Amino acid sequence: MTIINATQYLKQLLSSSELNRIGKFTGFCQRLRDIQPARLLPALLSGLGCDKVDGIAGLHRHFNALQLHDTDQIAYKPFHNQLRKQGFPLFMRALVERAIALRLKECLPDAHGLAGFEQVLLQDGSSFALHPQLAEHFPGRFNKHSPAAVECHMTMSLLDQSPISMSITADTESERKHLPAANSLNNKLLLADAGYISREYFADVTKAKGSYLVRGSQNLNPKVQAAYRQDGREMPKLLGKKLKDIDRRSCRAEVLDLDVSSGKYKYRLIRRWFAEEKRFCIWMTNLPRERWPAEKVMALYRCRWQIELLFKELKSHNRLKAFATRQKAIAEGLIWASLLALLVKRRLALTLIGSAELSML
């Protein structure tokens, strides 16, 4: 469903009847008691979306402050018990999915020659430390520093500047499992960092007539099949060489645009030398060289910065660090609630600012 008007968006999202229906369906609120979904959600969104609520006690005070009558206020324990329910994270996740489905009109103008793509998707993940006693449910990758942690996996639309798919798992789970299905990327472009490298997946994307642009890792060492300088001139002396054998002594070109092979997989690889940092930067892609020269590809990858900004906003301005709870349902539910607050703020902000230039700093 596409909703153009922001007021209509909020009315649909905060509909009392719909919230109560979802609350019953997820088991969060089987009977309409004092803490009804239609009263709780505005408190969660405004509380998590500002910088003034610290911890669950602060969220409880914020809930009571929003009530119109003193008789509607509730004590801390029943408020806490409501958030402890196993249906709480299910309820919040369902609302996130609903907020994604109620899309506002895309208001980002075409930029960087992306008009030929039906959609431009940015893929990334970010981890959050939890209370150590949740390590059984959400084991972290770094046992000493963060024994319990979750990973938020996100696919973001560059066109409407908002997530279109999200999931929460233990920090130890592979990021690549949460990539969009390759056969769903027809006429779409995927941007991702080096953590998502999978040659088999990239081959499937190409087969589906999709496009990808991914940051390459430093351990890549494919065989060169064709080599070009940044100005398009061929470099036949590099044919047949391994990538790591082409160092600064043997090749002084700042930018190399290569066709390479690694086993049965073939792809395009662009490598650039950064003199100040004394290191190479690598990109893997299947974008055609004729339409997408190396310089344009490197500039295009900077659009991926948008999802980095989104995660920074999530961590910095949605109060996730303030909730050190031992309750699995509360921890997971508040992460979904924070994601929902971020999603709503971004959707409404886009309607206020209208078209805007992409930040690629």
UniProtKB/TrEMBL annotation:
Keywords, ordered alphabetically: DNA recombination, DNA-binding, Transposition
Alphabetized Pfam families for the sequence: DDE_Tnp_1
Transposase IS4-like domain sequence ranges: 117-343
GO MF entries: DNA binding; transposase activity
GO biological process: DNA transposition
Entry superkingdom: Bacteria
Similarity annotation: Belongs to the transposase 11 family.
Name of the protein in question: Transposase
